[in-house]
Amino acid sequence: YGKNTIKFLRLHKEGKKHFVKEVEVCTHLRLISAQEYLEGNNSLVIPTDTMKNIVLVLAKKNGIPTIEQFAIDICKHFMTTFGQVAYVKTYVQEVPWQRLHENGIPHIHSFICVPDGIRFCEAEQCRNGPLVVFAGIKDLKLMKTTQSGFEGFYKNEHTTLPERHDRILCGELFCKWSYGECRDFDFDCIWNKIRECILEAFSGPPDCGEYSPSYQKTVNSIQMNVLSKVSQVQVIEAILNNTFYNVVDMKNLGVTNDKEVLVPVETPYGSCACTLGRK
C-alpha cells in the first residue's frame, strides 16, 4: 500500500540564482505482517498521509540533487526508521523544466517546460537486501522523415499493407534501465549520456542518417548502443509505440501530392517492445 502522485516543486537558491526540481513521487510499502488486511488491526500501519509528509520533509532537508538520489533517500528513510517495513519501492518522475536563455545568457530565475521526454526513476529494497535503482525516460516523441522502410514481411489472405522502402518513422519511446545494486554513480551524467545514445541510434549520422528496416530493429539498435557505451547499465527495456502517416490523396483537387501532406493515423497504433541485458 502507499501514496501516489505526491506532487511538489523544490526551489533552491544560491544567491540571486534559483534552481527548481518539480517532481511526482509514488511510495509503496509492504509490512512484515498482513494483520491490517486479515484482522483489521492497524497497529503497524504507517498512514499514507504520514508517508506523504515524510517525502516532503526529506525534500526540504536533503534537497533533490538528482531524482535517483532522492528515491534512494526515501527508501533508506523508511527502511531504517520503521522496523515493521519489509519492502519499500519509490517512483519519482521529473517535470522537464529548463533554464531560459536570453541572447545566450542563462536567466537567474526563469524556466521553460520543454516536452522532450520525461525523466523518471525507481528505487526498491527488501529488508536485509540490496537497494536497487532503475531509471528511464518516457513520452519521448521521435521522428525521421526518411531512411525507414518495411519490406519482406509475412503475407497471407488477410494482408493489405503494402511494402514500403521510404516512409516516415515516428513513435513515442519508453526506456527503462537497471543499474543493479546501488553505487555512487553520477546519475545526471549517465542519464544524459543514455539519452544521447538513444537519439544517436534512432537518427544515425547527421549528414545521412541510417536506414531502419523495422521499428523492431530500431528498438534493438537503441538498446545495443546504450549497452555498448554505458557500462553501468545492466538491463534495458524499450517500448516504441508507433505513429503512422498516410499520404493525402489530392487527385480530386487537381494537385499532385508527392508525400508532402500527410495525416497521422491515431488508432489503432502499433507497438513493439524488447528487453535486453548483458550475458
TrEMBL record:
List of residues binding 5-hydroxyisourate: T48, D49, F150, R167, Q216, N242
Positions annotated to bind urate: T48, D49, F150, R167, Q216, N242
Catalyzed reactions per annotation: urate + O2 + H2O = 5-hydroxyisourate + H2O2
Enzyme class: oxidoreductase
Keyword list, A-Z: Oxidoreductase, Peroxisome, Purine metabolism
GO terms under cellular component: peroxisome
Chief location of this protein within or outside the cell: other
Function statement: Catalyzes the oxidation of uric acid to 5-hydroxyisourate, which is further processed to form (S)-allantoin.
Sequence similarity: Belongs to the uricase family.
Name of the protein described by the UniProt record: Uricase
